[in-house]
């Protein structure tokens, strides 16, 4: 039995940063990289299934990206994933989430997992579409924003709880294999043990190229993408005003604003 | 993480060996930690590591733990973005800020940040106060705690009325200027002036005749008010004035006795926090209908055994919890509260420094994280129990063992492999561990732990 977890290395911004000269992205010097928070929960969910199962469960993490992505894959290995796969070719630069979904679906066809987990969204791009694109590309059942999961390895059905707007939950039965996008809070992700981190440093990350997946350059990258970034910019700041005065005066003005909002 | 250090590297016995270890690793954070210790060629080698890539330099310029000596070195780099980050970094010292000003003094954003930085010197602020015309920048200078009285006077002379809000609350504002502010200010400015430690006595007398509640409320807090004036204010019908008065350190016992009957809870709560209450006052407040009043009494530093005993049987959990936190609470009461129905109360017993070992042993059998965290951090807990708790799955409980001043080396050693990086970081400075134990973390996967190890040894070797 195998669970494939799609993970992404995301970039976090400092409060001051510079946009690249081509205005398509932030200057890389100002980016701090880490494992996408949602994917940490996806991995933990896979680990919980693995650890509570009587049958052998293999957890495989996969990511699309250049060599530096090995750091987040090793972080997943340190937390207990059995194998890590990194897919990259310079031609993949500029791929959108639909194209990434296509690349990941080729990995799924190669690995033949019983379940695929992905995060609901990534913290940097926030498109929320990679997992769903992957399911569409595979023509597999899928469920998004999964906040609860009951699944026995080997079973052909899973019971999931989806998080809806307005505090509602929806219980759904889904056929397996399927693609689930996992929501924050479904579990408590573990810290990697020191031993796990040291062992992960020595573990290999499988590198897969386009040809290994049976894809060509025309299947990926900016030309294959269905959407393209035209410009990245800092919008003009909205209306805000500082409350002036001594602390007592500021408190009085705040109280006045609160009263006004309450309609008193 | 690639291996930074050779696997068999032993504890550096000298400053020189420590610096060489950081240099040979090429590790950014180890290099930053030892930079202050190095000189000459070694310092240059460390600078090369720190400045090799711009993204690392940017990172160090922003990181709040970057040592001041490294920030000073970074200030010499001709890069406006780095200067901006140094200007925002709370660890930048006055010398670094002066360098930033000298090199980038034409940049408005940089100057604006300099006037808001806690370490900007009064000399720099004074110089900016004289040369700048930008009102928001001058306002920041008027609000800066390092701005001296002369500069405040000059700002007021240059722009009368413009910075009255800032000047009225600034600790260095001289009495003459406070008087001027009081005469021309609105009720909020006058309120700030009567609270000011340098407010002249005659202004307090003047304010006493005001009718504005804001001014009277602030005045009621001033310990320099005469007993007569305090007595008159005690008759005021505004609750906020009475509440402030109840906290005034100069309030007489007679007035406190009188105010204890006040029908407003917040007035009695303020009274219950006073440390000069009589036994009768405490007795009365211990029977108060408001549980917040009783809670404050329960933590009072002069409470007798009888009242503690009474409050230990209070129907409100928070009051009983407050009893457990009172250092005067007897062991008998603690024993009784250790089997309280409320887990919050039992957790209070677990944290109490007087709780005996046998009670802690009993509490250690519970499964509540608050109770166990208290047991883990309590200096009276037997070592065998600490060893057991150090293997808990709960991070809060393991952290309790780490901060326990009586946790022995053997108890702490397994925690050097704790999965939570913050725990390993905390252990670096733990006095129960020896230098070899600390050094075992020098190649930790977490950068902040490595930094802390090298910083700890740097501080050791910097000592004469």
Structure description:
The complex is a heterodimer of chains A (264) and B (464). Chain A has 264 residues and is α/β, with parallel strands linked by helices. The longest helix of chain A has 16 residues, at 37-52. Chain A has helices spanning 37-52, 70-78, 97-111, 130-138, 194-202, 221-224, 247-262, and strands at residues 2-6, 9-13, 31-35, 58-64, 83-87, 115-119, 142-150, 157-163, 169-175, 179-182, 206-208. A nine-stranded mixed β-sheet of chain A has the order 9-8-7-10-6-1-4-5-11, sandwiched between helices. Chain A has a two-stranded antiparallel sheet with strand order 2-3. In chain A, helix 2 (70-78) packs across helix 5 (194-202) and helix 3 crosses helix 4 (130-138). In chain A, a hairpin with a 6-residue loop joins strand 7 (142-150) and strand 8. Chain A has one domain: Rossmann fold, CATH 3.40.50. Chain A is built from seven helices and eleven strands. At the A-B interface, helix 5 and helix 7 of A face helix 4, helix 6, helix 12 and helix 14 of B.
Put the structure in a nutshell.
The complex is a heterodimer of chains A (264) and B (464). Chain A is an alpha/beta fold and 264 residues long. Helix content of chain A is 30%, strand content 23%.
């Amino acid at each position: 039995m195998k669970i494939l977890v799609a993970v992404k290395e995301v970039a976090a911004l400092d409060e001051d940063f510079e946009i690249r000269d081509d205005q398509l992205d932030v200057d890389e010097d100002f980016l701090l990289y880490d494992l996408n928070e949602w994917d940490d929960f996806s991995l933990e969910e896979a680990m919980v299934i693995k650890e509570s199962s009587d049958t052998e469960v293999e957890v495989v993490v996969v990511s699309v990206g250049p060599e530096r992505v090995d750091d987040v894959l090793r972080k997943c290995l340190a937390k207990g994933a059995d194998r890590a796969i990194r897919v990259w070719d310079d031609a993949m630069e500029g791929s959108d989430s639909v194209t990434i979904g296509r690349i990941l679906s080729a990995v799924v066809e190669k690995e033949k997992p019983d379940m695929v987990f992905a995060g609901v969204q990534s913290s940097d791009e926030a498109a929320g579409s990679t997992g769903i694109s992957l399911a569409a590309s595979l023509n597999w059942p899928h469920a998004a924003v999964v906040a609860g999961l009951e699944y026995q390895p080997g079973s052909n059905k899973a019971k999931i709880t989806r998080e809806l707007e307005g505090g509602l939950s929806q219980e759904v039965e889904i056929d397996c294999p399927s693609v689930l996008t996992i929501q924050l809070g479904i579990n408590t992700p573990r810290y990697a043990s020191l031993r796990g981190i040291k062992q992960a440093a020595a573990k290999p990350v499988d590198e897969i190229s386009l040809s290994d997946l049976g894809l060509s350059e025309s299947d990926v990258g900016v030309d294959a993408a269905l959407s393209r970034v035209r410009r990245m910019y800092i919008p003009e700041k909205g209306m805000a005003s500082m409350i002036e005065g001594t602390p007592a005066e500021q408190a009085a003005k705040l109280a006045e604003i609160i009263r006004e909002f309450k309609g008193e | 993480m690639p291996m930074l250090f050779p696997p068999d590297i032993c504890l550096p016995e000298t400053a020189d060996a420590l610096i060489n270890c950081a240099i040979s690793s090429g590790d950014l954070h180890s290099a930053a930690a030892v930079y202050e210790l190095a000189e000459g060629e070694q310092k240059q080698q460390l600078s090369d590591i720190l400045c090799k890539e711009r993204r690392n330099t940017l990172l160090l310029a922003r990181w709040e733990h970057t040592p001041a000596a490294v920030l000073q070195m970074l200030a010499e780099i001709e890069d406006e973005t780095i200067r901006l980050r140094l200007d925002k970094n709370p660890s930048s010292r006055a010398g670094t800020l002066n360098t930033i000003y000298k090199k980038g003094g034409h940049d408005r954003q940089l100057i604006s940040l300099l006037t808001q930085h806690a370490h900007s010197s009064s000399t720099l602020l004074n110089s900016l106060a004289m040369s700048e015309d930008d009102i928001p920048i001058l306002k920041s200078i008027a609000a800066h705690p390092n701005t001296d009285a002369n500069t405040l006077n000059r700002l007021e002379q240059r722009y009368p009325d413009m910075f009255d809000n800032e000047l009225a609350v600034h600790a260095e504002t001289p009495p003459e200027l406070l008087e001027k502010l009081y005469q021309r200010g609105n009720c909020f400015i006058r309120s700030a002036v009567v609270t000011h430690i340098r407010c002249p006595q005659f202004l307090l007398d003047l304010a006493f005749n005001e009718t504005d509640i804001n001014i009277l409320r602030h005045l009621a807090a001033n310990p320099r008010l005469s007993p007569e004036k305090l007595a008159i204010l005690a008759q005021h019908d505004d609750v906020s004035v009475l509440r402030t008065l109840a906290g005034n350190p100069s309030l007489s016992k007679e007035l406190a006795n009188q105010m204890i009957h006040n029908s407003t809870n917040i007035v009695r709560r303020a009274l219950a926090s006073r440390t000069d209450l009589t036994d009768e006052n405490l007795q009365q407040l211990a029977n108060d209908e408001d549980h917040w009043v009783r809670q404050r009494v329960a933590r009072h530093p002069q409470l007798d055994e009888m009242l503690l005993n009474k409050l230990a049987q209070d129907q409100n959990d928070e009051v009983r919890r407050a009893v457990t936190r009172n250092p005067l609470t007897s062991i008998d009461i603690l024993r009784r509260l250790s089997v309280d129905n409320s887990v919050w109360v039992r957790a209070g017993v677990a944290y109490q420094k007087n709780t005996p070992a046998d009670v802690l042993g009993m509490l250690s059998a519970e499964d509540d994280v608050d109770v166990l965290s208290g047991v883990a951090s309590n200096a009276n807990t037997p070592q065998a129990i600490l060893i057991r708790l150090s293997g808990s799955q709960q991070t809060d409980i393991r952290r309790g063992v780490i901060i326990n001043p009586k946790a022995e080396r053997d108890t702490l050693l397994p925690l050097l492999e704790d999965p939570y990086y913050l725990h390993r970081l905390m252990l670096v400075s733990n006095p129960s561990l020896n230098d070899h134990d600390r050094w075992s973390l020098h190649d930790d996967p977490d950068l902040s732990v490595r930094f802390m190890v090298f910083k700890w040894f740097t501080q050791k070797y910097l000592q004469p």
